[in-house]
Amino acid sequence: MSKKSPKPYVSGDWSRYYTPIEPKHSKRRLTPPGIRLQLTLWYSVVSATLIFLCALAFYAAFERYLFVNLDTTLHLRAQQIAEGMATGSDGRLRVVRIISEEPELDASAVIVGNCLNHTEASSDCVNRLNDTTARSQESIYVRILDRSRSIIYSTANLKDVQLPLESLDRPEQGQPWEGTVNNGDDEAVRFYSTMLIFNGKIVGVIQVGQKLALLYTRLRFFLFVLLILCPVLLTMSGIVSYWLAGRAFRPIRRLTRTARAIGARDLDQRVPLSPARDEVRELTIIFNQMIGRLERAFAQQRRFVADASHELRTPVAVIRNMTEVALTQAKSKEDYICALEAINDESDRLGRLVSDLLALARVDEERMPLDSEPVRLDFLAADVVDSMASFAAEHGITLQTGTLQPATVKGDAARLIQVLMGLVDNAVKYTNAGGTVTVAVEACASHVHCSVTDTGIGIAREHLPHIFERFYRADPARSKAVGGSGLGLSIIDWLVRAHHGAVTVESEPGKGSTFMITLPLMH
Q: Locate the Histidine kinase domain: which residues (predicted)?
């Protein structure tokens, strides 16, 4: 029986060494709606709250109005009943007439004689009042009591109503009473109880009441109107809020369209400003300023790339030409040496250019490290003059120091040496033989000034604002002759600003230039 042969190994088949991992289903997060819809929702919530509070206030005010109006009516009704009361010669209460604005309580007939007293009632008077009460369909309540709390008259519908003792105690003390009680059918009745006064004395109590059914009907109708009106107002508020939000965001949409249309080649476009001086106008101004900075940055970058390519092409072309000359035309050792020296000079120039480009790249990325330590600027200037004296002498230039006042600054000594050496190198290159370059340090109350003054060819006035720009040359022919790359002053300007200082230049053609470095003095 033959053994089963193993599965042959296939080169590059690594799948058997790995365990497949099932992808985990990430929980879906709710994407928030747009700002316009969010504002609409917020406006709707605020509007709904305000509408609810206003509806609640209106309902409470309307309810208060109805109750106050009813209490006023009951008060007037009690006064009219009191006007129809009188006392006889024996001091007994007598109903002369009952007059009311309500037709149900109007008894036009005049009741004379001792019709009602504190213990008994005339059948004719009672019949008249009962007829009146019947016509009122038991919605009006009237009760008259004398000083001993004996009932002189009471409507039939009052027999199932239990009024609190306070309704009698307070009028007997000279204070009216108002309150709501339930009758036998569990219906709410509003009562007003007041004193009956004759000749300045309280002789009885009049109690007048009315059912609240009509009042509650009016309240329910008002509530029904509010329940219909509030959703309508809320819907209208939402529609208006959505429209207003869209109108408010119209400049934002215009800004978005412009930003979307702007590319690297269309940086000259600008968003038109709205006439209203609002936040959107301010945002548009800032956006246009940003586009302007981008336009200048892109233009500077294109110019920088073009200038760098041109500067790199020149030494490379010289090296290539000298190499071809050495390979094809050189006949002697001197020819080879001359070609190699030219190649070496251009290689040095190429190396300096690459170093300057690398330094500028680090400057743009803010990656150039700077130390922060006390530095004696007067000592540093003297050292730079000593180290570059021989270089200046080779060009026939006298390099000397002027006033060197003691001054201490906080910074990077190596970078400050680079700044001074760059300025001295620049002054020596642009000063004719026999000229002088002077380095001086002067301290004042809070700053120190370090100057490099030469007696060279000077700089024309129109070139001074651009002297620290990259690859800018006031005299291109002269710059190429002395081997300048056009980057040295740009690096110097950045290094000085990185030390919280400033570098300025004053020059007059034919008389020389003065570069002034101003740094904060360390106390």
A: 307-523
